[in-house]
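Standup, Tuesday
Yesterday: got the pipeline producing structure tokens again.
Today: sanity-check two examples.
Blockers: none.

Example 1:
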Amino acid sequence: MSDFTHFDAEGKAVMVDVGGKAETERRATAKGEVVMQPETLEMIRSGGVKKGDVLSVARLAGIMGAKRTPDLIPLCHPLALTSVKVDLRLLPERNAVEVEATCKLNGRTGVEMEALTAVSVAALTVYDMCKAVDRGMRIEAVRLTHKSGGKSGSYEAE
């Protein structure tokens, strides 16, 4: 059985023991989109959403989500993130808001789940703030786009 598994010798779920791993600089970036009606995107752009500044609130929610990842995803390690950056961009040609999050730390385990959680929480916040005018919005293409650090090396999405 591998040293880095979520199962013990009896087949019970456990948190992976990363105590023997070297600390390295870890970084992960994830992206996703919230696709909506053109009118909804214009409301976000113009500041016409009644609940407030959608992009600012979603950015903050994404940062907070990254910090709460071990509370949401079973068996994730609580991490001392050194940086969480969440960017939201309007994509009028796709009637979408793109969400991108980058998480960093120096540690023994990666930050992929934190970046993916940040994107997901920010996208859900966009949906929540705009659902009164557009219940048909879709959260799509949430994916890891970059990972560096650690024993498994780097990853770049195509």
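Example 2:
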Amino acid sequence: MITLQLGRMSPRETERMLEFDREHIWHPYAPMPATTTALPVVSAEGVRLTLADGTELIDGMSSWWAAVHGYNHPKLNAAVTRQLGKMAHVMFGGLTHPPAVRLAERLIEITPEPLTKVFFADSGSVAVEVAIKMALQYWRSQGRPERHRLLTVRGGYHGDTFGDMAVCDPVNGMHHLFGDVLAKHVFAPPPPLGYLAEPDQAYLDQLSRLAADHAHELAGIIVEPIVQGAGGMRFYAPEYLRALRDIADEHGILLVLDEIATGFGRTGELWGCDHAEIAPDIMCLGKALTGGYLTMAATLCTDRVAHGISSGEAGALMHGPTYMANPLAAAVASASIDLLLSRDWRDEVDTIEAILTAELDGAEDLPGVADVRVLGAIGVVEAREPVDVPAVQEIAMAHGVWLRPFGKLIYTMPPYVCTDDEVLHIAAALRAAAESL
């Protein structure tokens, strides 16, 4: 058994744990047995992770963008504890409970007005699966089963399950190995890079033509609004999102927005779609929904979509996860939303953006750097060649920071509650990593 004393582990216990981990536990996108050793985290407080030897690291990743309030927050701890004393879980089939109802009320209040129906899922990937199923089942219910394909853009990432993989980038994405067994969808080129860039009319025309050519078979358009996340950390101008809304309306196609990474203020607006002042027909939420405490996601849709599905041959949306609307997750999700909206989260995100922008100024001119970009609480250094991940992480840890690069990207999505000094440390780690390329 592994034991902890004062937040530390003995070297012997640490090595025993890591040896078992290497030989038996699969990590994300990693071989088995592992070729690198994972860092042993024994506790987390505020925005800092404590390793087994007592080393503290500022978490520049918000635990893959979820822990926006940091760790061990008393208000979120209290929400979980209160609910745990009442009910940890109950099936959602034929039953309901106050945490689910309250969370649904909050989500409907804070998301764009047309979204009035909430489906609770147990992960972001499942939320996207549900959104895809909603779009397909809607058209089948309308007597149009031939509308069974989706239009999306290259450079996107929507999750690891089969429906999701089929709308991720089919060539440069993480799932190209499965291309021959995935559903075939319609892909446009990635939106031109640059949040402030002038819209490219030729690209807009290409989007319009592609949608028109396939309108008879398209159930929906699915994209990540404004920021393409794990597919490349690319930022694009709001005009392209507005164009997709117009195209969807012109051809009666459902617009699906994957806000799992962009939602809850990460881009400087509460929702990515707010940058374009548009609303989707279906929206996926996750990651920061519970403040990084428990896995939970949600798929919201309009009355039109919900009624269209329910009036069809099945008479119901054909999906229902076992842990759907888990009371613990729902309770902490509501507390996380309340906590976010009780603070000046916009000022927190703007401050992170300003510091990262200032501290990374000029880094784009370094020899190994292809681009540097910052939007909201997101900072990205794109290298010219794939980065040596362990080497970059060593540099970051020497600055007291935890980063997790991938491909050509060294990036940060820090917790909003970071102090100015903590953001400066993160920026210094990013810059040092850029200088090492």
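Quick observation on example 2: The chain is about 35% helix and 15% strand. The CA atoms of residues 135 and 373 lie 34 Å apart.
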